[in-house]
Every structure is written in C-alpha cells, then in structure tokens.
Design a protein that fits this description.
Elements lengths: L2 E3 L1 H9 L3 H8 L6 E4 H13 L3 H12 L3 E3 L3 H16 L6 H12 L3 E4 L2 H4 L5 E6 L5 E6 L1 H8 L1
Parallel strand pairs: 1-2, 1-4, 2-3, 4-5
Antiparallel strand pairs: 5-6
Helix pairs in contact: 1-2, 3-4, 5-6
C-alpha cells in the first residue's frame, strides 16, 4: 500500500466533486489505496446526517468494499501521542480526527491524499498529495522539526 485517502478525498471521489481525483484514484491499483478506520467512521457519520442516508451509505459501502481499511492500533496510538504532544508544545494543534488519521499515515509510511493541506501540514514528517481547486496535484512534504524552527 502506498496511499492513505483522507476523509475529504473519499467524499470528493464518492460524490464526483473532483473529476481529476476520481481519475487518479480509478487509475491507481486498489492494493495501493487505503483508508483509516477513522475515515470509515467519518464517512458513515456523514451518510447518517445526509438528506438521503440510505443512498449515501450505499455509495460509501460500495467504495469502501474495494479499499483496504487500516485500524488505529497500539503503534498508531504511540505515534498519535507523540504527534499531539509536539503540536501542543508549539501551539499548532489540529483536530482529533485529523491527528488520528495522520498518525495512521505516519505509522504505516503512507502518502496521505487530502484536500486539507493546511491542517495536515502540521503533522510532523508527513507526505501527501493535495488537489487544488484548479484540479492540479501538489506534493506536500513537511518536516515538523524544520517547521518548529521557522515558527520560533
């Protein structure tokens, strides 16, 4: 596996909001794609709140059946704890779900595919691809320790 799809990337794919992202995901071998258990939970929460919950859940289930799901395990928990302490120390915390997803990506050495560049860029040594509103992919690579030096 090479890529971990963030929740917002999954939503854009499922809802067809980004033809470029859809094409890239469609052309990537399914064995190279994964989602976190946190993303799965967020997707089902979103479908439960939807105006058409049955339709939303059906589309999500169809998508998720083709993707490897990664659990939040003890190794991810240790990574999460370190990440959270580091971010709190420099005053740049991110959302709990984003930290959990970032910890899973970091633990498994995966490239995180996200539209949430600003938030995820705070999460240590994180590599990802973000899709701009123009549809262009941009590689995101942030080394947390370097960012701390710049922030000081």
């Amino acid at each position: 596996m090479k890529y971990l799809l963030d929740t917002n990337a999954c939503v854009r794919y499922i809802n067809g909001r980004s033809p470029q992202l859809r094409l890239k995901i469609t052309n990537t071998p399914r064995t190279d794609l994964g989602v976190s258990a946190i993303t799965t939970a967020e997707l089902f929460y979103g479908s439960a709140k939807s105006q058409t919950p049955e339709r939303s859940r059906e589309r999500q289930t169809e998508f998720l059946q083709t993707i490897i799901s990664l659990p939040f395990n003890e190794v991810s928990a240790v990574t999460y704890a370190s990440l959270r302490v580091d971010l709190e120390r420099v005053g740049t915390p991110i959302g709990q779900h984003d930290m959990l997803i970032a910890a899973i990506a970091l633990t498994n050495d995966l490239i995180l595919i996200t539209h949430n560049r600003e938030t995820m860029s705070r999460a240590g040594v994180l590599y990802g691809v973000t899709m701009g509103s123009d549809g262009a992919s941009r590689l995101l690579s942030i080394v947390f320790e370097e960012a701390v030096k710049v922030a000081k």
